[in-house]
């Protein structure tokens, strides 16, 4: 542990920003292709299976492998291991680069497989903090939806297939070597999903600024992220060229913000919804907001003003017909998130979040 | 050149922030000391020669070398070569790390020597863009004054001893691998100097936001830097614990801002003052501001409000008794900065900045 109590934050090494920046992916990969046999693995969100994002850009050469990633469910450790095996099956030689093109899930798959290829073992062996021992394969992210911050964070989230634990490979080696932030790529995102995912950046920064573990650099990243979200979600169409660029920047900076800070009450409840009901992270956050007024009154009000301003429909009644077993499971998978709950409510957070209180909050969603 | 026209920005790899963070320098260096013979070179601002910053922190071991850097004058290429020779004279073996503890000059010396040790040749061989071919020695910055952004930029500024050209080693390899941002270290800075250097962050971001080459990520960094400067220079004592922390963050983010953008009119004039009159960069910026009202009316007014709020004395009459030869030299060393002047005034900037106009502006300082 460092003497300041603040993490020694690891940045993405290179970031390339701009409309049309994906055209430079080929140049970046060419810099890694030293020998003729060097190949690249592309993990691409299956949304793009019939809409070739890379057409005309010469990024893919004959020995490369494209693996489409089904993003209907959040990734499990078995899924990550399966993806790694696909890479192994295609070639005995390590790839010279791994590229993740998609949202949080696809980027997380690229991060995890990159680490597994050089470190050996299975995904579940590295769930936790600083268990990865060696740098992974050179990895590149090209986000096609903004908000999660997966492009800039040191984790890749996955649910353990055996015990249901949702926990990432938290490691400096998980951070991307290169990211390409091309706002043209988020044009095709459905509006609701654009909002749900985008609000992840707003929400984790809002939680961070309301927490007890704060520092001036984390605060600066969070403040700027929130300001960008305000500008773009309150000012005209959130999906205009200018606003898509702003959200892409907010997502990146929001990821930087949590490098030295923690989330709060909302993310643990949202994680509960994802684990028990299989909801995607972005929409689960937005659903959780329904019960957050008492913890984050200002953020709560601003969130609904943004949703109204963009005319976005927010799901309701998700927890109306839950069984007792499900509620019990929801309590367990929420309360397990000790760090963020302590950040928000102090060490005695369980005195505030009693099983009864947690149930009441879920029923409000 | 990339297709977006925006640079593929290179980040500092690790940043550690917090009051007292310098205590962790030893742990960070221990991670680089693999063999018993591995040594570290410390470049330390000579201000600290009789005030041992590292006392009690075990960062220095017996084989290490401390080189105090005289910061009375801005560095020249001969000075950098001389510093490199000092390292060579002390040991035939390459150091395992180079640490720069001080302000912009000391950090720039650390950057330049790190590159020269692995690339060979002299400092003047690398003045320009992307001339450095190999990564330098692992390098660490510990800023003890905030504002220049040297801790986060890809250049190290030096004046060519032979031809007077002020130009840095612009390279991704110039970027630090690790920086330690410890706001405790800026407690001893004289108030005027604290303001002059601090305003560098404000000024380069203000210029960037008023330029023609802009993009959403550069804008976000600039906006947050300016907001932090406003908060700290307008709100109470600029040197309170909280405000020193904010300025250290603003300096880092300001350096990030110019990774994808350019400065404007002020920096070229300021560079002229440094080259011809030998003024330090921070104070030269503040002097130049006297003539900038027509280019940056809002920034100009805000700058003087900040100076007034902090009761800082700004030098005046510096150019009162200049000779014609000096004025001619000032014109030449200002107008040479094509990129920033084009950013601010367009390609025909020489039609606006005629020799007569430039003289008039210098005389206003």
Topology of this structure?
The structure is a homodimer of 365-residue chains.
Chain A: E1 9-10, E2 14-17, H1 25-30, E3 40-45, E4 65-69, H2 77-90, E5 97-102, H3 104-119, E6 128-129, E7 139-143, E8 169-170, E9 178-181, H4 191-209, H5 216-234, H6 241-257, H7 266-277, H8 281-289, H9 297-309, H10 324-335, H11 338-345, H12 349-352, H13 355-363
Parallel strand pairs in A: 2-9, 3-4, 3-5, 5-7, 6-8, 7-9
Helix pairs in contact in A: 2-3, 4-5, 4-6, 4-8, 5-6, 7-8, 7-10, 10-13
State the low-pLDDT regions of chain A, or none: none
Mean pLDDT of chain A, to the nearest integer, reads 95
Taking the alpha carbons of the first and last residues of chain A, their distance comes to 38 Å
- Pair of chains with the largest interface and how many residues each contributes: A-B, 46 and 46 residues
Which fold name is given in CATH as the topology of the largest domain in chain A? Rossmann fold
Count of separate DSSP helical elements of chain A: 13
Broad CATH class of the largest domain in chain A: Alpha Beta
